[in-house]
Structures
1.
Amino acid sequence: MSSKSSKITSPYFARNDSTERPTPSSDDLIDHSTPNSFNDENFILPNPPEITEFQHRVYTHLLLIPSGRITSYAILASQLHSSPRAVGGALRRNPYAPMVPCHRVIAANGFVGGFMGDWQKAPSGVNQIRKLELLEGEGVEFTREGKLIEREGVWFDGPWEQRKD
């Protein structure tokens, strides 16, 4: 991500081309306990861990999904000329969650889908429940079984152009 004064200003991730994988310190980790700060202009991105080019593309696209909207693994995969499973794998490894909002991606059938490794049809894992809480905090509604309650404008399928700040 590009930044001014260590603040997010556009969806661009710096690449770490070193062959050594850095060991993150506790200072490098994102605090997952503050769910309502996703659009916080003062959020300071920690030093980026090593990510693949594909992960870079996925995370950049995630930043284009507005709060209160969702997309599916299939729609995102189509934009990236990839597969839903590959997208899911990148999302599962998202080191920037929830600031890079992987929680805004759900299954095409409307079920909440996985989150940070949890994957069941009904939300039963701690991480899946967290995903529901994040989405509901943005105004997206689900049944008790974890199925999206459809409403006008909730699905996001573009535009996928980079935002101009």
2.
Amino acid sequence: MASSTGDGRHSLTTPVFLLKTYEMLERCPTHVAGWTDDGEAFVVRSKTEFETKVLPVYFKHRNFHSFVRQLNIYGFKKARLESSDMSPSWEFQHPKFRRGAKRGLNQIQRRTTTTPEPEAPFENSHEVAALRLKLTHLREHLANLNANIERVALLVVRKRKRELQLPTDVVMTSFLDQVDWNLEA
């Protein structure tokens, strides 16, 4: 990411993802994730806690694999390790991402990929209109399917309630027959 300064020179800005990741490592409980002893890499020691307690604080998701994908986009290398208690942990390394070197983060940039051009762009508004109409029909069909699922679920619940009441009704009828028999005798 480059931004222009007032005098026409270009300066690199640090991607927000890298700033958040760096700050996360500085503040994260070390049993969950942190820097390696030499500060050349960082390790995620508890994937579960990392996903549930750390990622949501810094990012809009709690998906470890999405986090790893982002790291890959910035050129980080990953290694899966076994810790002393044999639980898996993951180490990530980038030559310019080091403990105590926050100012150098602006040198790490996203990899650029070439995106292929669409093979056949929509040639006219008729195609777009047809697709929108089809989408509307699909949404209506989905709504009908969901309504049917709800009806079937309700029928299942009612049937289950009747099955649970059936033994009680049989016992009660038998009891009333006995009481009636005893009263006549």
